[in-house]
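[agent] plan:
  1. take the single chain provided in the ticket
  2. run structure prediction with default settings
  3. attach structure tokens to the ticket
  4. add a short note for the reviewer (M.T.)
[agent] executing step 1
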Amino acid sequence: MIRLTKFSTVLALVATMFGGDASAAPRVPQGDALVSSDDLSVRMLEGLHRHADRQIEAASAKRGRLWRRDVSSRAAYERSVEPHRQRFRKIIGVVDPRLPPRMERFGDDMQPALVARTAAYTIWQVRWPVLDGVTGEGLLLEPSRAPAGQVVVLPDADETPEQIAGLAPGVTPAAQFARRLAHSGYQVVVPMLLSRRTDQSGNPQIAMTNETHREWIYRQAYHMGRHVIGYEVQKVLAAVDWFKAQGTRQVKVGVAGLGEGGLIAMYAAAVDTRIDAALVSGYFEDRHRIWNEPLYRQVWGLLSEFGDAEIASLVAPRALVIENAEIPRVDGPPPAADKQRAVAAPGVLATPAPVSVASEWRKLEHLVPAGFQPRAMSPGPGIPAVPPGTSEALDRVARLLGRPLGTTEGAAAIDLRKRFDPAVREARQVKELERHVQALVQSSPQKRRSFFLNTTSVSRPAKDGDRYVTQAPEVFAREAAPFRRILEEEILGKVDDAPLPLHARVRTVYDQPAWTGYEITLDVFPDVFAWGVLLVPKNIADGERRPVVVCQHGLEGLPKSTIEGNNGYHGFAARLAERGFVTFAPHNPYRGNDVFRVLDRKAQAVKASLFAYIVAQHRQILRWLGTLPFVDASRIALYGLSYGGKTAMRVPEVIPEYALSIASGDFNDWTRKVTSVDYRNSYMFTHEWEIPTFDMGNTFGYAEAAYLMVPRPFMVERGHHDGVGYDDWVAAEYAKVRWLYAQLGLPERTAIEFYNGGHEINGKGTFEFLHRHLSWPAPRSK
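[agent] step 2 finished; step 3 output follows
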């Protein structure tokens, strides 16, 4: 068993165990004494949360420096904000070309296309094309006279078009925006939004989950650069396309939404300048706690450029009415029903506090002069929220669109459909979006190849007679360098703070016959530190510099997980130290279940991530290792298992100072692993809701990440019985890596070892790989 010792005994141990022989004495890293008795894994997460909170609080002031609004004219203003509009479209996933506009009234004997008729308007059951295989579906309310205007009305996520049109109970008459506008002579399209139901969230052949429909689509779409928000904005814009195709140029177009529909309404108006006015009810406030809202509202890097005020400024100079309205409270995901997996992400919704609404409204007034944009808040800033559907708000937007709200109303419309079930319609809509995302997943290998490899000279292999000529590795490395920046800044995100001085703190924690172990902490940023355990072989001679293997633990692990205990790591950090390597076992902060996942959400709000912090910690670790007189800084490798394998696929790729990387128990067809709805061990069916990474499926699979290792050595360790993937997935993805190294004349610098084991360190071929490529002789076999 590994024995612990105290820092105060270090010098005595040196003297008694080694008799003062300096050539055999352990090399003690220098630093202040580490005296903390806290759980350092807990303290690390607490500090990271404080840092992320400060980043969010600072985001509002920082993003102001990014904008240069020109209010001299409408044309000048729209030119000045257009780059922001395009970035906003990108991060909410509005990137696909829409299909030609068409509005289909459809039905059958039981569900006729004609839903209801009143003296003022007729209601039709409709659908309209949006994207390939994706339709909008809902209701069309046609006025009996020439339309005063055209409006897309969006209910809250748990409301149906029928409710907001007055055909079904559940929404107060005041909040029946569609009915009230249609009665006043407006042509109205009411799309259904995905609800917070769960009955379609899963695969009955694998597992059903308690993810809401919105989260189910979000998880798979986000990784593919799409978003449930973006899909629903596209449905609104496709309806606007149809409005515009009717050729009624003098008629204005508006959007109006409640709750989740308010979000979609404001976002749609922000991205499409054809929308003349927007009514946003129950969605407008300071978003500094967006990380506490449901996961399906997470937008990559949103707060680094956009708060609600900045989004509203994209609507300018077009009209905007904010209704500070009450919304239904959402206290986390639905509880798991029978046979559902409880894997949904936490997240709550509540009526915005008046102070939060007022502060964001003041920001908007500062960003856009009052005379430049017709806008109003009802009730006024600082007044408590009211039930949705105030006549003041609805009449204000109606007047902006051309005709005031009518004051009299006729008899309620009656639904002519027999046994209509909105859940059946929603099931169709969920499956359409699921199929669209899964088609993107299937075509993603070609997309990633076009993004990266096809832009380099290696994609055009040369021949000399019958022999293929290898390419120059240094040329490829130079061509690949911009992609390293993209991976770090656009995919993983980056913390831009300047690193602090290292300020190492040290204490001795292990004393073994072959090595001594030191626990180390290093400062990174204010409240952020790196922590790990350094194992130093005792036979290092004076002046000798050894290679280092950074041994990375996986999910919920600790540094000691790689050193001691009967687990899947098999003490590989200690075993490598016995072979003469200096090893360092860092702590990565993916520990504490949802505590670290919420940290990732906070970071994503400001265009960073959990791995942005991990990269920063590893940079400090490498800086510190390079200061040790017995370490060769040019020979430092990273070898990680499971989530540590994820580290091996991200950190050395963006930190070129790492000389080598070994990914164990994680290398995979990463896009399918994250997004597949047909694979039993996909992250779609697990609680690891932090895994999807925005747009990674179109940019970096694991092959593309490994390309960034060139010309450095790279290896994969794969157990045949490791449930994280299939052998054929792993082999096919690795074949791309092998092909590249071969084209560059470096086939000996990459390897894969399959072995008859599970999710564990095998430590055979990988150890040989380390010895060979870190130029350290392997011990003689006994």
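[agent] step 4 note for reviewer: Residues 1-24 have pLDDT under 50 and may be disordered.
[agent] ticket updated
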